[in-house]
C-alpha cells in the first residue's frame, strides 16, 4: 500500500512524518494497528494531554482516559477539534475510523461500547500518541 506524502502533508507544514519511526508511519499513514498491550501508555495514569505523534495536535485529555482492558489506550471522549471520523468498511466490518484533524493520520477506531457519559470507546494506537504530562501547579 503506497500513500503519497503529497496528499497528507496538508497545510500544517509538518511534512510527511519527519522524525516518525517506521512503525509510527505504518499506523499513521498506512492505517496499521499496533500489537495490543504493546503501548506503555496503557499504564499511563498521570494528568496531561495526549497529542498526535505526527503533527502535535492535541487529541485527548487524561480526564477521558480509562482502562478498557482491550490492550490499547482507550478514551471515552476526544478533544472536539482534535479528531475526525470516517466510515471504514475494510476487513468485512463497518467501523468508525478515527484520524487526526490536523495531519489526517490514522489513530484508531471508535466503538459504541464505552462508559458513560458518552458511551463511546476511542480505541487508540498508543504508538501514535505523544503524552505530555501536565506541569505541576500550572493546571490545564
Ligand atoms: Zn496529526
From TrEMBL:
Superkingdom of the organism of origin: Bacteria
Species the sequence originates in: Gluconobacter wancherniae NBRC 103581
Database matches in Pfam families: SelR
Keyword annotations from UniProtKB, A to Z: Oxidoreductase
GO biological process: one example: response to oxidative stress
Domain MsrB residue range list: 13-134
Its EC number(s): 1.8.4.12
Gene Ontology cellular component annotations, sorted alphabetically: cytoplasm
Protein's name in the database: peptide-methionine (R)-S-oxide reductase
